[in-house]
Amino acid sequence: MEQKTQDLFDDFISVIKExxxxxxxxxxxxxxxxxxxxxxxHHLLDGYIQAEQxxxxxxxxxxxxxxxxxxxxxxxxxxxxxILVSAPLRQSGRLRPLFEDLEQQLxxxxxxxxxxxxxxxxxxxxxxxxxxxxxxxxxxNSGNVSSGSALHPAMRDTYV
Length: 160
What we know:
The chain is mainly alpha-helical. It contains four helices and two strands; from the N terminus they run ααααββ.
């Protein structure tokens, strides 16, 4: 492999590693946000949101670098699985564990984000009910709105 292609490939690997680490950091912020919301530590949420916004900007920059490097390597518009098939054996052997780690971090981020969103929705609903001074509807165990008592005492501080 010529030196320029090797340098591009090494840079591509570096971007994938950085992206994987950053996704782990974002997932941790989502988990921290969910915990703060579940513990009614709303004063912490603004800091988490600001940290998350900075991380998302960094993620966008990494994605732009990854796309540019992929294009220069001849992998323009290919998915990670397609890259593994089209890359030489030596390259695909180095990429496979990185792509698997990246996929694992993406799944962790998705799960963390869903948990945070669900808890925040519950807290917003509780706040809405408290502000309206009405009993209104509440959420059942699966997160759906149900009619009945709005704020069951056992549900107030439960981490979902």
